[in-house]
Design brief:
- This protein is α+β, with helices and mostly antiparallel strands and 351 residues long.
- It has six helices and 15 strands.
Length: 351
């Protein structure tokens, strides 16, 4: 992999990740851009104890432009985009409309491929491996920023999820705090350790799923994917490395090599859940990594890196809405038994 760092016309950082070492990335950004202006504010909820990001400047962000005006496609004659080069493998750049910026953290965009019509599932194993390298590199660099406590790599796919750009891409958030979801996991981790005399919760969950087998969707030598026992979403899969590590940086070479095979197969199965004539399945793919600093970092060695992949589509043509119980009380009601979801995801395996 070759990494090249450059700057866009407004000063934002842009990084090219290339499979070939001889690629030269010196195309200038010729757009007359004004400096990025952000108005993010972090507000703590005194009742729930969590943090809300107020980011009013994001109201003007680009919204579902036509393909020929996509800001994530390579630049071409007569149309300059966020990526000055005429082609690319993987690109990461600072978001022009960030939820978090400066002392409040950092937001980046990850373009998985220059092909506007592709999806992550269409990537080759070599391309997917390069995305994993980019995620890992950004995790390592953002972990060095004093204002960042936790790094979150994720992909929103599909208009139903709220995606505003159709180009295959994801995002990376560097939070200046430990997220509520991670804090809950760390609390459960500590309670389990206390209750069991020192056992690790992540290890026990993976061990139980492997022993039971009913909810295992896909298993390799170094990764296992399963529908969790108490899945929140209609179709939800958790992907764990069999050797527990706290974050992407700690994955060994064997796990990195196998990851593209396992992950691409999972994504392709997701697109087959509802049948061959259905539109692509909307999903969120979310990496959970241990915090780097702050009080929560005390248990980072015990944390288990994993990816959670889920869809809000519960059946053909119908979405799972977060209504009264979910939105008002954070009590999920799942319409699809996890065992049935796992069976379906095994049925649609690639031939």
């Amino acid at each position: 992999m070759k990494k090249t760092s450059t700057r866009l016309a407004d000063g934002r950082e842009l990084l090219y990740y290339d499979r070939r070492d001889d690629r030269v990335r010196d195309d200038p950004d010729r757009r007359p851009l004004d400096a990025v202006s952000t108005a993010s504010e972090l507000r703590r909820d005194p009742l729930l104890g969590d943090t809300v990001v107020v980011a009013s400047h994001r109201q003007g962000r680009t919204y579902l432009p036509p393909a020929d005006a996509c800001p994530l496609c390579p630049s071409r004659e007569g149309r300059d985009s966020e990526i000055p080069a005429a082609d690319y493998d993987v690109v990461v750049f600072e978001n022009r409309f960030p939820s978090l910026a400066g002392d409040s953290g950092r937001c980046e965009v990850v373009c998985f491929t220059s092909d506007h019509e592709a999806s992550f599932a269409d990537l080759t194993e070599e391309q997917a491996a390069l995305v994993l390298e980019a995620w890992t590199d950004r995790t390592a660099e953002l972990a060095e920023l004093p204002q960042v406590q936790q790094v979150f790599c994720f992909e929103n796919r599909g208009a139903e999820i709220g995606v505003t750009l159709g180009h295959p891409h994801g995002q990376i958030y560097g939070y200046p705090f430990t997220t509520p979801r991670t804090a809950l996991m760390l609390r459960s981790l500590a309670e389990h350790r206390e209750r069991t005399g020192g056992r690790n919760l992540f290890d026990d969950v993976v061990r139980r799923e492997l022993a039971d087998g009913e909810r295992v969707v896909l298993e390799g030598e170094h990764w296992v994917a399963f529908v969790p026992y108490a899945a929140h979403w209609p179709y939800e899969v958790h992907l764990h490395p069999k050797r527990r590590v706290p974050d992407l940086r700690a994955l060994d070479d064997e796990a990195r090599t196998e990851f593209p095979q396992i992950y691409l197969e999972l994504l392709r199965r997701f697109d087959r859940i509802f049948g061959p004539d259905e539109p692509p399945t909307p999903y969120i793919a979310a990496w959970h990594q241990a915090p780097f600093r702050g009080e929560a970092a005390a248990d980072r060695a015990e944390f288990g890196l994993h990816l959670e992949l889920f869809t809000i589509r519960r059946t053909s043509g119908k979405l799972k809405y977060l209504a009264g119980s979910e939105s008002g009380m954070s009590v999920f009601i799942n319409d699809v038994p996890p065992e049935a979801a796992a069976e379906r995801l095994r049925e649609v395996a690639s031939k």
